[in-house]
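re: that complex we talked abt at group meeting.

here r the seqs, copy pasted straight from the sheet so there may be weird spacing, ignore it
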Amino acid sequence: APALTPIQQEILALKRERNAVILAHNYQIEAIQQVADYVGDSLGLAYQAQASKADAILFCGVHFMAETAKIVNPTRTVLLPDLDAGCSLSDSCPADRLAAYKAANPNVYVVAYINCSAAVKALCDVICTSGNAVKIVNQIPADREILFVPDQNLGQWVAQKTGRKMRLWPGSCYAHVQFTVKALEKVRAKFPHAPVVAHPECVQAVRDLADEVCSTELMVKFAKEQTAKEIIVITESGMLHRLQREVPDKTFIAGPTDTCACNDCRFMKMNTIEKVRDALKNMTPQIELPADIRSAALIPLQRMLDWSK
Ligand code: 13P
Ligand code: SF4
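got the structure back, here u go
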């Protein structure tokens, strides 16, 4: 393991002092991943948050992920290093617009990708992540008409995998839609033997060129199974830190966009090592949720955790 910097050592000391646990998403910067107790995808992080017995959960990810931790484990203090770390996908489905849609279409069965606010979760029947979306949708009664929010790309992929017809909310991840066929073909020409793994938030034309489409956690499994030495990874570039640590004998090539050699999510990258230290030092900023929203959001989230086992 690499030697820790003074600030990283300070974080580990504060973590013990506060009886805190650090949960980090795969897209966080390497220095944060190195001090985390657990690094994973949205699904793994939700299970970890629910099971945590620590006094405080310092969540290194974006706002909806920290909110999810608070919903499933409300008696813990949940800290997010920067409250402005949002998500363009989550923002594409405001709760008032979903409520209006439901009022006009009262019979739809609403499946929400976990990348949405607690207020949106509170309006839904079941939640899914990219890691379990197919499994969740397959358990929805066949006679129900499904509305999938907020990601039209993940929704389209799940519809194709399950054969279920679904209405799709017109949202998308600003970062993942920047991957294009043109950029992917260029990198493939450079590494012709490298298999391609892509996140389902990518557009269909990009997904269709990939050897595997899956959640960030399943990318680790995919990488371990490959015989090829080089793998092209079409997702946010923080993922490469996790892959390189767990599969050190392979080389990972970040998926490029038309304008950049790799692709960062500006929200995920709002968390810095200094903000992580300050959050533990000051025990702020904390995630607070109105009790009615929390208890309404827990129903579809708990359904997901149960159906996903
Ligand atoms: P995963 O659950 O696959 O890690 O995805 C989270 C996310 O925000 C993708 O952009
Ligand atoms: Fe949201 Fe996209 Fe960033 Fe994931 S990568 S947190 S979906 S904006």
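couple things i noticed - The first strand starts at residue 20 and ends at 25. The two ends are 32 Å apart (CA to CA).
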